[in-house]
Specification:
- The protein has nine helices and twelve strands.
- The protein is α/β, with parallel strands linked by helices and about 260 residues long.
- The chain has two domains: about 5-105, Pyruvate Kinase, Chain: A, domain 1 (3-Layer(aba) Sandwich); about 110-260, YojJ-like (1, CATH 3.40.1700.
- The strands form two sheets. A seven-stranded mixed beta sheet has the order 7-9-8-6-10-11-12, with helices on both faces. Strands 3-2-1-4-5 form a five-stranded mixed beta sheet.
- A hairpin with a 5-residue loop joins strand 8 and strand 9 (about 200-210).
Length: about 260
C-alpha cells in the first residue's frame, strides 16, 4: 500500500531520507545533529529535532507513539494519512506502516474544535514543545497558557505584577505570527499564567488565577499551574495548556484533564 508521507527517525536519518528524495518526507534528527547542505536543498523534506541523544530500541514503542501524536497535533500529518515510519538504529532499518484513518487517534484539534481555532491550537502545541526543549537544554521550565473566553476569564485572574504585554502593540502580541514566538515564550516562562484571547492575541503574562476551589483537588498531587488550569476551565469556557518541568504538556477543558502530550 502506498504511503502518503514517510517519517524517518534514528541515528542517521539523512542516509535513509535520500532514498525517498522524491516523496514527502519528515526527517526527525537526534539531539545535536543538524541537517547537511544537501538535505536543505530538498523542499519536500520537513526537518524536526528530537531530544534523544541516542534512540531506545524498537521494542520501546513509546517514542513512536509520542512522535505520531506530536506530528498529528502540530499538523505535519493528518488523521487520513497512510504513513510509512522508518526507524533506524545501529545500521538496522525497521519499517512500520500506519493507516491513520483506521486508528482513530484522538487529537487536540478535534477535542477543541468547539472552543479554539484549529490554527491557534497548532501554534500553541508548537510553542509548548519549544518551552519543553528549552527547559531540557538548561534549567527545567514550566508554563501555563489560558486560551479563549477572555470576558469571563478576566473575572478570575489577578495581575500581581506589572503586565509586560500592556505596552506592546497588538501585532507584536499575536501568537499566530511566528516572528513573535520568541518574545511570547520568554514572557510565558515568568511565574503566573499567559492569557490569550480567541484570536491568538496575548492579553497578559504573569497573571494569577484567584478564587480557586481547591477542595477535591487538594490531594491530587498536582502543582499550582495544574490547579489553576483545572479551576479556570471549570468556571469558564477557556482551555488551559500546562507545560510541566518534567516535559509533559497537559490540556484542561471544563475542569478536566483531557489530553497529555510528551515531547519526543
Amino acid at each position: 500500500m502506498e504511503a502518503d508521507k514517510v517519517v524517518i527517525m534514528g541515528d542517521d536519518p539523512e542516509k535513509i531520507a535520500m532514498k525517498y528524495r522524491d516523496r514527502r518526507v519528515i526527517i526527525i534528527y537526534p539531539k545535536n545533529k543538524r541537517p547537511t547542505a544537501e538535505v536543505l536543498l530538498h523542499k519536500n523534506f520537513v526537518r524536526l529535532f528530537s531530544d534523544y541523544s541516542s534512540y531506545p530500541d524498537l521494542e520501546s514503542l513509546e517514542i513512536i507513539k509520542d512522535t505520531i501524536l506530536y506530528l498529528l497535533n502540530a499538523s505535519y500529518i493528518t488523521s487520513k494519512d497512510k504513513l510509512l515510519l522508518i526507524f533506524s538504529k545501529r545500521g538496522e532499518e525497521h519499517k512500520l506502516f500506519f493507516d491513520l484513518s483506521s486508528m482513530k487517534l484522538p487529537t487536540l484539534l478535534e477535542m477543541l474544535q468547539d472552543r479554539v481555532d484549529r490554527k491557534l491550537v497548532e501554534k500553541l502545541v508548537r510553542l509548548c514543545i519549544g518551552i519543553v526543549k528549552r527547559g531540557r537544554e538548561g534549567t527545567p521550565a514550566g508554563a501555563l497558557f489560558i486560551v479563549g473566553d477572555w470576558k469571563n476569564v478576566r473575572k478570575y485572574i489577578l495581575q500581581k505584577i506589572a503586565n509586560p504585554m500592556e505596552g506592546i502593540e497588538k501585532g507584536k502580541r499575536d501568537i499566530m505570527d511566528d516572528k513573535n514566538i520568541d518574545t511570547i515564550r520568554e514572557y510565558a516562562l515568568m511565574d503566573g499564567a499567559t492569557i490569550i484571547d480567541d484570536r491568538g492575541i496575548v492579553i497578559s503574562s504573569g497573571a494569577y488565577v484567584k478564587n480557586l476551589e481547591i477542595g477535591e483537588w487538594l490531594m491530587n498531587g498536582k502543582g499550582g499551574r495544574h490547579l489553576a488550569a483545572q479551576s479556570i476551565t471549570k468556571f469558564t469556557k477557556a482551555i488551559g495548556f500546562v507545560v510541566s518541568t518534567e516535559g509533559v504538556i497537559r490540556v484542561y477543558k471544563d475542569g478536566k484533564l483531557i489530553y497529555e502530550l510528551k515531547d519526543f
